[in-house]
Amino acid sequence: MFDVVAFGEAMIRLSPPHFMRLEQTHTLDVVVGGGELNVAVSCSRLGLRTAWVSRLTDNPLGRMVRNKAREQGVNTDYCLWTKGDRIGLYFMEFGAAPRASSVLYDRASSAIANIRPGEVDWGKVLNGARLFHVSGITPALSRSAAEVTTEALKAAKAAGCQVSYDLNYRSKLWSAEEARRIQTPMMEYVDILISTEEDTKVVFGISAQGTDDKSFTDVKAEGYKTVAKALQERFKFRAVAITLRRTITVWRNGWSAIAYDGKRFYEDVEREVEIVDRIGGGDSFSAGLIYGYLKGDLDYGLKFGNAFSALKHSIPGDLNWVNVDEVEGLMKGSGSLRVQR
Amino acid sequence: MFDVVAFGEAMIRLSPPHFMRLEQTHTLDVVVGGGELNVAVSCSRLGLRTAWVSRLTDNPLGRMVRNKAREQGVNTDYCLWTKGDRIGLYFMEFGAAPRASSVLYDRASSAIANIRPGEVDWGKVLNGARLFHVSGITPALSRSAAEVTTEALKAAKAAGCQVSYDLNYRSKLWSAEEARRIQTPMMEYVDILISTEEDTKVVFGISAQGTDDKSFTDVKAEGYKTVAKALQERFKFRAVAITLRRTITVWRNGWSAIAYDGKRFYEDVEREVEIVDRIGGGDSFSAGLIYGYLKGDLDYGLKFGNAFSALKHSIPGDLNWVNVDEVEGLMKGSGSLRVQR
Amino acid sequence: MFDVVAFGEAMIRLSPPHFMRLEQTHTLDVVVGGGELNVAVSCSRLGLRTAWVSRLTDNPLGRMVRNKAREQGVNTDYCLWTKGDRIGLYFMEFGAAPRASSVLYDRASSAIANIRPGEVDWGKVLNGARLFHVSGITPALSRSAAEVTTEALKAAKAAGCQVSYDLNYRSKLWSAEEARRIQTPMMEYVDILISTEEDTKVVFGISAQGTDDKSFTDVKAEGYKTVAKALQERFKFRAVAITLRRTITVWRNGWSAIAYDGKRFYEDVEREVEIVDRIGGGDSFSAGLIYGYLKGDLDYGLKFGNAFSALKHSIPGDLNWVNVDEVEGLMKGSGSLRVQR
Amino acid sequence: MFDVVAFGEAMIRLSPPHFMRLEQTHTLDVVVGGGELNVAVSCSRLGLRTAWVSRLTDNPLGRMVRNKAREQGVNTDYCLWTKGDRIGLYFMEFGAAPRASSVLYDRASSAIANIRPGEVDWGKVLNGARLFHVSGITPALSRSAAEVTTEALKAAKAAGCQVSYDLNYRSKLWSAEEARRIQTPMMEYVDILISTEEDTKVVFGISAQGTDDKSFTDVKAEGYKTVAKALQERFKFRAVAITLRRTITVWRNGWSAIAYDGKRFYEDVEREVEIVDRIGGGDSFSAGLIYGYLKGDLDYGLKFGNAFSALKHSIPGDLNWVNVDEVEGLMKGSGSLRVQR
Amino acid sequence: MFDVVAFGEAMIRLSPPHFMRLEQTHTLDVVVGGGELNVAVSCSRLGLRTAWVSRLTDNPLGRMVRNKAREQGVNTDYCLWTKGDRIGLYFMEFGAAPRASSVLYDRASSAIANIRPGEVDWGKVLNGARLFHVSGITPALSRSAAEVTTEALKAAKAAGCQVSYDLNYRSKLWSAEEARRIQTPMMEYVDILISTEEDTKVVFGISAQGTDDKSFTDVKAEGYKTVAKALQERFKFRAVAITLRRTITVWRNGWSAIAYDGKRFYEDVEREVEIVDRIGGGDSFSAGLIYGYLKGDLDYGLKFGNAFSALKHSIPGDLNWVNVDEVEGLMKGSGSLRVQR
Amino acid sequence: MFDVVAFGEAMIRLSPPHFMRLEQTHTLDVVVGGGELNVAVSCSRLGLRTAWVSRLTDNPLGRMVRNKAREQGVNTDYCLWTKGDRIGLYFMEFGAAPRASSVLYDRASSAIANIRPGEVDWGKVLNGARLFHVSGITPALSRSAAEVTTEALKAAKAAGCQVSYDLNYRSKLWSAEEARRIQTPMMEYVDILISTEEDTKVVFGISAQGTDDKSFTDVKAEGYKTVAKALQERFKFRAVAITLRRTITVWRNGWSAIAYDGKRFYEDVEREVEIVDRIGGGDSFSAGLIYGYLKGDLDYGLKFGNAFSALKHSIPGDLNWVNVDEVEGLMKGSGSLRVQR
């Protein structure tokens, strides 16, 4: 019986060391990551019983993905295995101003894209679960992946568990119109919607007031309150949370978030983050929000998610190798930036 | 105007360091390789003017492949570029007895598989060329790749250049029957056939006399003379060359080759090779044979190819970073195994 | 409900790269290992439901140990955690003839040495288990660790599960006399005794006939049959298995094993192994023997264990990243040493 | 027939990883670089047909230099080869405030220092070329290298191609007086002079107005307009371009440039650059300026050069692994600093 | 005959590369460090004849510690050796805002903790010495280590050499009360007390005026003058020096120091330091202060120490691989942050 | 007062990792080595008080050389320092059969080549010394280096210390005739001559009987007895020692030595060595011979040198990181090749 069940793809991430361009590198660092897996791993690290559902190719790469989930205490018993297809890859280049970091996907024809409705025993894995999590990447993978996402959302509702949904728009996978058309009906099953300041605009056409800076270098929390409110009102979510990234340079960002529950807004401090690896920052926010929400309330979830994900930016890889006590230390402000001995 | 033109796929090779299993690794070493590219690079290193023809995706991985060819002096002006498809990958695990080294391909949907007849200006690239080289991997990639292979073979004949063909059977790409059916008509354009002791058996059903050792741990040159003879007689090749690998352990092999020109057999010493990386060993033999054959005769080609490819086994990566004077030194037997100062 | 439950210490292993001496190194490779954990991991990889019981310090090193067990599917829910003590370390130097590989232990005061009887709920973890495994290292760690070992052995018998015991003598931890005095009463609970040709002599004073070569460079299976027989007769084991290592050089060994069940002897081929990392070779034999014994019989267990552990020698780290199909391939002799594509 | 021909030395660069001091390091990262080669590589990457002329020792290091030029599509057919002399080396230490990065040259007696007039067939390599590029490093290498530089400049004029000259003063190679004495007569052949704010002062004694800050931490574009104007007026250059580096810390610089064509000044935005490796930043500006100037006009060249070289600072090594579309993206300001997916 | 003699523990430091968490790493970088050894090494690099006294285990780790001291010219002839005990270790994690760097000690039962009064021939090693240095870490290691510290302090006085004492409070080793109780009587032997702004508060309860910021992000020199004065007045030190760290982020600090000799205050500029590795920054200040004080006076010592330790922050490892001329260059302000060629 | 004083050059050695060719590498491993320094380091490790005399450039590379000598306890106080010249480099490629390992020297114009008679205070450094060691490399460096070698040899005789001389012929530095002409008069000062089977033939024209195998793959101890005898008789050495390397493959050698004192021959077992790095193997023999000879007699020296240098082959770098007890363990034959725990 799990607290949290997540569903989605995980890929092998290959990244050149030390700011090398992919074209020039001679070695690649290997980690595993993917939106929903990142959330599941974080939830497990925070002490929630967590399962991750996916479809994997039975080869060393598929086993590596499964292993990395298990390493963090995530249950993988409900993953499907195939001898065919492939494990998706992505190549990650770390940048420095004025060169942004960039991602090259090589994820076509991955095993999860060929998942079919009826293959996962949702009733069993969701039995007694408190929350089901999925992001907008999963339905973008293929038509059948979208069908299975809907199947899972319905099963979650049937099982009486809440649903959190991270909008996570990926323009390489589908158009904004497709994203809107396919995801809009899904929203009725969603309790908690999580998004960035960019994705709400692209997918649902809801913009922050007074924000026309295309490069999002100066993101104001105030402006995004109207976005959260508009989303909540349209879809009647229990909660909407939006992460706010202020891109000072590639190596330094301001990081905060807001939430809205239909009644009031919740805010937190903005933290300056020195960026080692920002991939998975948003997923860490989702996980921290889920943890705090399940343990306390939306306000605690927002603050926990914000602190937890701020810490993520300092850690290489997609996963957030941080512990509860470190998050609480940061939230209490007791943590100085001096060496902890 | 080129001495040698080669046509085929090159992939990004990703290999765990220090005998790690792919499933356990945290980094991957990156090199570029592919049968015909390996031959082209070796020919260029040996001083022949060489071009390599392929179809590549215009992204960092495609540029990396092109760059590595250029680095070695191989002309890539006749490569086709696409914004779509992908660059094939393969994962290489280095083993130790009793664990063999192994390869995991992830090459489906690569750019060259979608090459179409008429896209390459064979007349131009082959104009004045002395030799065209291709291997059995290229027609195995896709139906259209096979059609372009045939197109190239015909163009080569029309341009008056000789053709060398390395049988290079890949069971992951096609069945033995397909390989036989599709390649048999190609053989009429082939002047020099190169093969291993295994592939002739699998593809053309021609076995070495008195060899029933499935693991090929004791390969005898004598037995393979009948194979070379049978091949030559069936297809009327100008020359047949067969590499002979005696697999003592994973780290030690005996390595030799024989050739037959319809009149007499050519043999060379067997060398004990300490194996750093045997991928590309056969391609080095092809290149050395081509070089020696074009510069001298089949006998010189056989001996040059044998020495050149023996040296390849000591070098990491698919490519043979060896120079003509080092090959000649080994052929003369002047090279002791002591430190060269 | 587990098939196999193992109990013992795991350490962080730190080893200089590329044959460096510890005194000269600038980096250390980090893996996790320990006799019983190695067995548990192998059993899990082979498909058995497996738990590992230990006592760990709740810090990043303790979590790393736990994570690496979980990564391989081993259940760690029954491990005890403490804020105090430490995680044992060991430093591993890889050698080359005539310099043997060597190990420097830094394991004093580790968390498991302070384990106390009554702390582990043996009844629960062993409930329904088929086999309990422990090695002679665990009782050697401390007086209380020996007491808990006895407690576990009794609980195993009470739960109706078989017991396998690897003698694994460590002279740094206790004297031969202590080892004999403390372990002799434990033997009554043991069904399957596993040992090397050296340890039976040191601990129980039982030598192979006609073996007086101190350096064990020429180990004969025949001679060790008398050892197996003497052990079985003295302690009435269901089975005795002895691994036989022929140390040709540091990089090349001959590797085999024999077993005896009180009625007949079981033998297998000797395999030449090229040694990447022989630590954990014996543990792999234990795991393979357990797997084969539980799935089939002692004969199958011996052969499976022998093949499985031969493969281990080719893999860096204490753990055996090999799969069932690879072991079966080697046992069938179908596996040549050529590149597997 | 080339668009751009460059002439100069390239060295093997050896740098300790991760901010290590040279005295303390155990490994060195190896790249190839040199002012004019860096310019040639960038021109080639930007799509110009480019040749690089030098003199190289025929050993693995000389071949490495040649290979790295070829890898980027630079023609090396006109390089001279010798069995003697050596390839110059330089050791690069990366710093952090308040420790500046530093370079230790070991370039004495390199092959190019022994180049002699008459050895290069300038008429052939420059035939039809649009631009010849050289920097003040080349004539500083030796008396004969200076003679060959003059020979090349004259040949360029004779061939009707423009000349760009980067002042690039190196105090380790010659004194300011020598630099002035030898380079002054060369200026009559130069169309485009490129310099830093420091070098114009040292070599030609022309300072920016109102700048007496020796550490160049606050460089004002305005002040340097008078420098550009004075240079243009003295030597009648078609264009003068000056790069402006504002050294905030070692890891952060402000980066801009100005140009003057005798009629008007051209300026561009200052970009904050996060510095991975600033070696080659100036050479990238030269190349970008040349590209933009040849494709468009001085204004476009200045802006292109400024953007292209800002990106260089984010890339390890001397070479600028950036593509035209990335430069254009940055120039259009469309490039946010967020992850590009 | 030595200028400076230091006494204390050195450990093997193991740190994950590239901001990895210890829990996630696969390799560890190895260096040697320890407060008093760091001071000794710096003094030796600056040209002082220096000895370091400790107690070491005679194994590869103990020899590594000794070697690294010798490498820097530090005399180790007076170190004691034992076959037992162990060399202490510490694990270092490098952070990024908002995650501070952190240290995990594994130093219990180290060889120096078992040092006994009478074992070191203090009369011999201190004969003719100008200064004896120790820090508050040494007496914190064990009761007997504290006794030997007192023994050494008395011997230093007897030998007529001055004593510098770095307060260096380590809460993992002892409580503030213990630190105060044991160190207070030692203060009578101390000529120069060195401390941070934090430690004086914790150990002696003396706070900076107007400072209640627990995270020490804004440290004012003015406030700490009262601390220095209070310390000097209570213990009658010849000099008190306090380092002042302004923690802007983890990667950027402001760094300065003040000193007081009972008559006047000495101050220096604050430098912005980009932090590669701040461990050993304080020890470098001590060494620079000692050097400057012995060569000149307290004012020169303060400025030299401040510049020398600012440079330390840019260098990986505990040791300060900087030379006298580089420190003097920085002090003169002649050093720009541009590449030094 | 030293037991052993050695004189010669040390270089920075740069070697590609993992059998890479120099032309293809991206990183270089850095160690320090040189014939006489290697001997000095080994003598110091074995417990002899040892000094090394050389001339070094005062830059990071020169300091690195000095540091590495000091790290091993070798006194460097008598080294001369210059601001000019350079530190010699050599590039080392590790091979695998049939590719031999190879060395590319870049040592011209090094600091020691410009050493001048009268600069070293030989009287002081040799005062009370027991043995002076030099090899044939030192006089080969330059005319003045040869003069200083003679100066040192005379000073050694005057100081009453014995002289050991390793013939160490380097064909890149001088011709065989020069080597003979310059070294023949030096021989009168030599007590112990050390050579390989090759160098005696090349320099003094003395060959082993019955050896005409140019590749030295089968070296017989018997044949070399005549060489040792002829050398001793011609020059009246107290002892002649010849190392005998049987080159089975690049990775496996047989290694032994003989000695002759004018009366009888001394021999030892041949050991099979697995080769990690054979550079410095001969120097280790010299050091072990010196140690054993000074501690015991020629017989003990021969056996100690043979065992000590056999162990060297297993260790990366020029230096022999082995301890006395390990050598004695190997000599007693107690050392099995099993893991030492």
Protein architecture, described:
- The structure is a homohexamer of 341-residue chains.
- Chain A has 341 residues and is α/β, with parallel strands linked by helices.
- Chain A has 11 helices and 15 strands.
- In chain A, strands 1, 4, 9, 10, 11, 12, 13, 14 and 15 form a 9-stranded mixed β-sheet that branches.
- In chain A, strand 13 and strand 14 form a beta hairpin.
- Chains in contact: A-B, A-C, A-D, A-E, B-C, B-D, B-F, C-E, C-F, D-E, D-F, E-F.
- At the C-E interface, strand 3, helix 2 and strand 7 of C face strand 3, helix 2 and strand 7 of E.
- Strand 3 (27-33) of chain D pairs antiparallel with strand 3 of chain F, so a sheet runs across the interface.
Strand tally of chain A is 15
Work out the helix count of chain A: 11
Order of helices and strands of chain A: EEEHEEHEEEHEHHEHEHHEEEEHHH
> If you average the pLDDT of chain A, what whole number results?
95
Largest pleated sheet of chain A: 9 strands, mixed
